[in-house]
Amino acid sequence: MAIGKNKRLTKGKKGGKKKATDPFLRKELYIIKAPSIFSTRNAGKTIISRTAGTKIASEGLKGRVFEMSLADLNGGDESQSFRKIRLVCEDVQGNNVVTNFHGMDMTRDKLCSLIKKWQTLIEAYVDVRTTDGYYLRIFSIAFTKKQSNQAAKSTCYAQAGQVRNIRKKMFEIMTEEASKCDLKELVQKFISSPDSIAQEIEKRCESIFPLQNIFVRKVKVLKKPKFDLTKLMEMHGDSAAEDTGAALDKIAAATTVKALKGAGGRL
């Protein structure tokens, strides 16, 4: 090696080592606001990088999906902990992320606990449109039940024709229940305890074959109507809080008009 070459061998890289900074210093917190159908309105917090240049924080939040337990949204009711609710960010108002219903699911452990031997599993799904234009796919699940006079070790399998008839009833009930109400009312049916749709399926299918453990297993939002802020605020119950003015007393108003007549005013 020639003397005098590779002079930078002992020195570090040009510009020195880049100073390590905490990435969370560039983040900001937003509060997730759940719709008014849930008892807990402040569902949690989410972080996003602060607005920098053309990258706006609020635009980055829109469309973000949050998955949370129904037990947390309904004030810690453990009997509803197997339900997972998906909320999507529709709008950002100040420091609040205003969300809307985006779907529902069941936890895997609950689903596994329902599946047993010696019974028939019946599943059905249907695509329905609500009165306010939301297009949903609803999945339901049911299991056959033993008769009271059956032996402990006996099976309760349904015949193929009975399964078809039960599935047909499930289609009818889900379509009927979902197509005659708006999204807010439908979500209330899904999260109500006991489940009103499941009860209706059990009652109507009793004559075909007794059923047990009936659940609306999953709900997907396939299509949404055009974004409307007024409708979103209705979901959050904020429209009722608007100042609509005091109620008008017609008799008092008429008396006031009579007293003002000829008093030099335009009345």
Report on this structure.
The chain is of the alpha+beta class. The protein contains 8 helices and 8 strands, in the order ββαβαββαββαααβαα. Strands 1, 2, 3, 4, 5, 6, 7 and 8 form an 8-stranded mixed beta sheet that branches. Strand 1 and strand 2 form a beta hairpin. Helix 4 packs antiparallel against helix 6. The longest helix has 20 residues. The radius of gyration is 30 Å and the shape is elongated.
Task: Explain the layout of strands and helices.
Blueprint: E1 27-33, E2 42-49, H1 57-61, E3 65-69, H2 70-73, E4 83-93, E5 96-106, H3 108-114, E6 121-129, E7 135-144, H4 160-179, H5 183-191, H6 196-205, E8 211-223, H7 229-235, H8 250-260
Parallel strand pairs: 1-5
Antiparallel strand pairs: 1-2, 3-4, 4-5, 5-8, 6-7, 7-8
Question: Which labels suit this protein?
Answer:
alpha+beta; 8-stranded mixed beta sheet
Rg computed from alpha carbons, rounded to a whole number of angstroms:
30 Å
- What percent of residues are in strands? 25-35%
| Largest sheet descriptor | 8 strands, mixed
Output the number of helix runs: 8
What's the total number of strands? 8
Helix content: 25-40%
User: CA-to-CA gap between the ends?
Assistant: 108 Å
User: Which structural class should the secondary elements be placed in?
Assistant: alpha+beta
Provide the succession of SSEs.
Answer: EEHEHEEHEEHHHEHH
Poorly predicted runs are: 239-245
